[in-house]
Amino acid sequence: PGAVPEEIFPAKCIRCGRCVEVCPYRSIIMLDIRAGIHAGTPLVEAGKIPCYLCMKCVDVCPTGSLQRIRQEETRMGLAVIDRFSCAAWIGTTLCRTCYDKCPYPEKAIRLDRLRPVIDQSACTGCGLCTHACPVTTKGGKAVNIEPIYARAKVTG
């Protein structure tokens, strides 16, 4: 959360691993050798392990690669609901798990006729909805995180 823009991050981040070490949820991983020149770069894969937006990573970043922003301004990805597998959308059951787990209900996600709808302008991409979703499909869950690259503004 609060990462500088994607095109600047690799040059600013020294790959010290402090963000990985301080994350109490193990939400941040370091890319391995398969990432080539990006090996050692920290990454949040919120669709796999959610980010709880604790911002401890920001506090330990020595280079300003991660900058303090308001939690609701974080953009790590975007939750996308598969309406063909979501229990609420296909009518198999009344499910609102993603709505209940979202840190910003009625902002990032709302219920329309008891079915979840994502507000793309407010979703942080934290992955809490995906992690909690009880529906598993071949492609993941009924709600998945797609990457986006809208990040914090660079200061200084």
Low-confidence stretches: 150-156
Strand-residue fraction? Answer: 15-25%
| Number of H- or I-type helical stretches | 6
Helix content: 10-25%
Rg, nearest Å: 16 Å
Distance between the termini: 19 Å
Structural class: alpha+beta
Structure at a glance:
By secondary structure, this protein is α+β, with helices and mostly antiparallel strands. Helix content is 18%, strand content 18%. Strand 6 and strand 7 form a beta hairpin.
Protein model, in words:
The protein has 156 residues and is of the alpha+beta class. It folds into two domains: 9-71, Alpha-Beta Plaits; 73-147, Alpha-Beta Plaits, CATH 3.30.70. It is 18% helix and 18% strand. It contains six helices and eight strands, in the order ααββαβααββαβββ. The strands form four sheets. It has a two-stranded antiparallel sheet with strand order 1-2. The protein has a two-stranded antiparallel ribbon with strand order 3-8. It has a two-stranded antiparallel sheet with strand order 4-5. Residues 150-156 have low confidence and may be disordered.
Index terms:
156 residues, alpha+beta, 18% strand, two-stranded antiparallel sheet, Alpha-Beta Plaits, disordered C terminus, 18% helix
Secondary structure layout:
Elements: H1 9-12, H2 18-22, E1 28-30, E2 42-44, H3 56-60, E3 77-81, H4 87-90, H5 97-101, E4 109-112, E5 115-118, H6 128-132, E6 136-137, E7 140-141, E8 143-147
Antiparallel strand pairs: 1-2, 3-8, 4-5, 6-7
